């Protein structure tokens, strides 16, 4: 007789052997104290730690305007949406939020999803389905380091997928040149690559898209709120909003709440609204989340303080790491990855940081990043102080000096 449980245990054992079994840190974020949080150990003890891997880049998860909006929404509208968007679940706040987002990106329309993941998966799979309607398989050109949600969306549509080397314009051009001109095409890419900390050559990709008549789909999940005069993302910062057909984002990172969205022309947004299964057949986001997201988006359209602080903190930290000679990946974004290159070693280093220095960084392993490139992904948010940064770099310097980090092993 087949023992189903043993099959699952074997899979888990494999993960443990490779050192990439995921252990979640149990945290209590304390309102008003970010980036500090309480960390709960498995033995029942707890202590205060500094979080160095949060995506709440601007500390908006504790912004007073956002909190007030969410609390008022619960008092006024209650807890849940009460239905899917199609059946009684569309709140006026959905409509207001979508208007705010289309204005943010100078687009005709926007659509809110339950997460950035669902937005990517649902939008890309639906675009492929709709573009392929005339028995013409669309071709999707996808950066090799695109997020799992985009990969999943592309895989679940019937298309030909061409993967180009990360941010490699010459490779993308070569793939486009050798493609059937008559077939529909989508170039799917991100602005800020959150595991590398680098930024795509958006203008060059758009120029190729124009030349080869391809649609552009840009994931700005790690950029919205944080880049551009109004927090619209890197395309806004570079004056390229009109070159992108669909911009995708999240409320879960710099906006500090949760939920995802896309913006584009009225026709493309209406088509995705009408055909995307992941949008249609699920309960709509609740009013408190919508109110928080709307307050955050509107606030960051005008407030510059948080953006300036986050960027100056990242710059300061990179300078300190340079001075200390520590090997971080030198991208143009606010994200600072430190390559360790071995799953067990990466876990061991982050364990030491937590146990001995009260610093929490989650080790990043395969499949999030390729094997052999395991890393710590550091985020100096707007909420970190100069003292926090100084301490972190000092501690890292000590670890590198004391442990010859790449050889560091733990029993
Ligand atoms: N796109 C990218 C590049 C991401 O890194 C993530 C999340 O980690 C997502 C999409 C999904 O966004 P969300 O967390 O809102 O589901």
Walkthrough of the structure:
This protein is of the alpha/beta class. The protein is built from 15 helices and 16 strands. The protein has helices at residues 4-17, 64-77, 85-89, 92-104, 116-131, 148-155, 169-177, 202-211, 234-237, 266-275, 277-280, 287-302, 305-324, 343-357, 386-403, and strands spanning 26-29, 36-40, 46-51, 109-113, 139-143, 160-164, 185-190, 192-193, 198-199, 215-219, 246-250, 260-264, 335-339, 359-360, 363-364, 375-379. The strands form four sheets. The chain has a seven-stranded mixed sheet, with helices on both faces. Strands 1-2-3-14 form a four-stranded mixed sheet, covered by helices on one side. Helix 2 runs antiparallel to helix 12, helix 5 (116-131) crosses helix 10 (266-275) and helix 13 packs parallel to helix 15 (386-403). It is globular and about 60 Å long. The mean pLDDT is 95. It binds pyridoxal-5'-phosphate. Pyridoxal-5'-phosphate (PLP) binds at residues 115-117, 120, 147, 149, 190, 194, 219, 221-222, 250, 252, 260.
């Amino acid at each position: 007789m087949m023992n189903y449980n043993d099959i699952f245990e074997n899979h888990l054992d494999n993960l443990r052997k490779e050192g990439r079994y995921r252990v979640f840190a149990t945290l209590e974020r304390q309102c008003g104290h970010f980036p500090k949080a309480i960390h709960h150990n498995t033995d029942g003890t707890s202590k205060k730690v500094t979080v160095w891997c949060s995506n709440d880049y601007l500390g908006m998860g504790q912004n007073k305007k956002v909190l007030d909006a969410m609390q008022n929404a619960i008092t006024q509208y209650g807890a849940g949406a009460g239905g899917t968007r199609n059946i009684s679940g569309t709140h006026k706040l959905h409509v207001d939020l979508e208007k705010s987002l289309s204005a943010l990106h100078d687009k005709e329309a926007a659509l809110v999803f339950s997460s950035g993941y669902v937005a990517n998966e649902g939008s890309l799979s639906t675009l492929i389905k709709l573009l392929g309607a005339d028995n013409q398989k669309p071709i999707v050109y996808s950066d090799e380091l695109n997020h799992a949600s985009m990969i999943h969306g592309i895989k679940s549509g019937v298309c030909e997928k061409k993967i180009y080397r990360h941010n490699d314009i010459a490779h993308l051009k070569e793939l486009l040149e050798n493609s059937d001109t008559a077939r529909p095409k989508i170039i799917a890419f991100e602005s800020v690559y959150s595991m590398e900390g680098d930024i795509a050559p958006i203008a060059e990709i758009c120029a190729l898209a124009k030349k080869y008549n391809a649609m552009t789909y840009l994931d700005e999940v790690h950029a919205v709120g944080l880049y551009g005069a109004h927090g619209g993302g890197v395309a806004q910062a570079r004056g390229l909003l009109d070159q992108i057909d669909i911009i995708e984002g999240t409320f879960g990172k710099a906006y500090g709440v949760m939920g995802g969205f896309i913006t584009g022309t009225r026709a493309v947004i209406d088509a995705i609204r009408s055909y995307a299964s992941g949008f249609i057949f699920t309960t709509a986001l609740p009013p408190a989340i919508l109110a928080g997201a709307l307050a955050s988006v509107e606030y960051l359209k005008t407030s510059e303080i948080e953006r300036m602080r986050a960027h100056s903190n990242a710059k300061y930290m990179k300078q300190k790491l340079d001075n200390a000679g520590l090997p971080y990946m030198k991208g143009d974004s606010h994200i600072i990855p430190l390559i360790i290159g071995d799953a067990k070693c990466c876990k061991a280093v982050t364990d030491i940081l937590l146990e001995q220095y009260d610093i929490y960084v989650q080790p990043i392993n395969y499949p999030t990043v390729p094997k052999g490139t395991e890393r710590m992904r550091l985020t100096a948010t707007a909420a970190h102080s100069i003292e926090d940064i100084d301490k972190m770099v000092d501690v890292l310097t000590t670890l590198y000096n004391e442990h010859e980090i790449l050889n560091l092993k733990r029993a």
